[in-house]
Amino acid sequence: MIVVGGCDIGSAAGKAVVMKDGEIASYAIVMSTTRPEVTARLAMDEAIKKADLASIEDLACIVGTGYGRLKVPFAKENISEITCHARGAHWLGGTVRTVMDIGGQDCKAISVSSNGKVNDFVMNNECDAGTGRFFEGMARVLGCGLEGLSHLGLESTRPAKISDQCSVFAKSEVIISFNEGVMALTPHCGLPSRESEVITLVNEGVPLPDIVAGVNQSIADGLATMVGRVGLVEDVALTGGCAKNQGLVRALQDKLQVKVITLPEDPQIAGALGAALIAREKLNRQS
Questions:
Q1: One fold for both 3-93+266-286 and 124-261?
Q2: What is d(CA 111, CA 227) in angstroms, rounded to the nearest whole number?
Q3: What does the DSSP assignment read for 111-168?
Q4: Model confidence over 30-74: pLDDT tens digits?
Q5: H helix runs in the chain, sequence order
Q6: In the predicted model, is pLDDT for residue 283 greater than 80?
Q7: In the chain, what are the domain boundaries?
Q8: Phi then psi for 163, rounded to 5 degrees?
């Protein structure tokens, strides 16, 4: 029996997958710690336990991926998360040709070949909009939690119009100004922020489902632009933690006018799964 593993260390979560003879035996998702090597160990130990294995030595090969891939101490090789997400999504849904990976601090559009290799990709890592960090911020502003962002928008009949301009306070210098005793926060780039727009809509009494739907639609607009740059080819799949946002999935489908397929496993493990698949291929080449 060939047992391999993949470990994906992202900014928000660590993911690990154990495969036995080419099938998923177990997986684990843990919150990221301040030390990537600790996150990697926590995720892999949990996946090993779920797979009924005695220890990490039972795995013939482990491949690391994600932002913290260089800090996975037990990985025999480190592979880009773009390659791994493409491979994992394609394996889960054999007809997938376009992958949108929405992670904690960036998002990517990936064109995938018929054998799961990367044809082309574009990545947005300059702006938080469309990332897990952005959605967490919106959930706090709206007081609805991430589950609310996923489901409340589905109740909307009149989504609010929200700008698709840059929205980041965390990564932009902020100008503080006073006008008639009112403090205003403006991103240094001069573009309006989604956060300030959302707060305005709340104060105007716009129904929460309409605001949530507007947020998801504004993100879908940006993702659709990225997909257009690599070329839209069906089938389309979402990976990463934000792929669980059903409101975003529907908004993307409406924008792209194609169905976004549902992967048969948790979309957050696609990168770790791709790493495990590459580990298995590495063993096959060696043998």
A1: yes
A2: 8
A3: EE-TTS-EEEEEEE-S--TTSHHHHHHHHHHHTSHHHHHHHGGGG-SSPPP---S---
A4: 999 999 999 999 999 999 999 999 999 999 999 999 999 999 999
A5: 36-50, 81-92, 132-142, 145-151, 194-203, 208-230, 246-256, 270-286
A6: yes
A7: 3-93+266-286, 124-261
A8: -60, 150
d(CA 148, CA 157): 16
Phi and psi (nearest 5°) for 98?
-135, 125
8-state DSSP, 104? S
Residue 165 pLDDT > 70, yes or no? no
Q: With H, G, I as helix, E, B as strand and everything else as coil, classify residue 84.
A: helix
Please name the CATH architecture into which domain 124-261 falls: 2-Layer Sandwich (3.30)
Fold for domain 3-93+266-286? Nucleotidyltransferase; domain 5 (3.30.420)
Confidence of residue 209 (pLDDT cuts 50, 70, 90): very high
CB contact set of 169 (below 8 Å; sequence gap of 6+): 185, 187, 193, 195
Q: Could you tell me which of 26, 200, 32, 214 has the C-alpha nearest to residue 132?
A: 32
> Which residue carries 């799961």 as its tokens?
116
SS3 55: coil
Six token digits for residue 49? 């336990």
Q: In what order do the strands lie in the sheet with 3-9?
A: 23-31, 13-20, 3-9, 61-65, 77-78
Q: What is the mean pLDDT of residues 229-242?
A: 96
Instruction: Specify the pLDDT at position 185.
Output: 37
Instruction: Tell me what pLDDT residue 187 has.
Output: 39
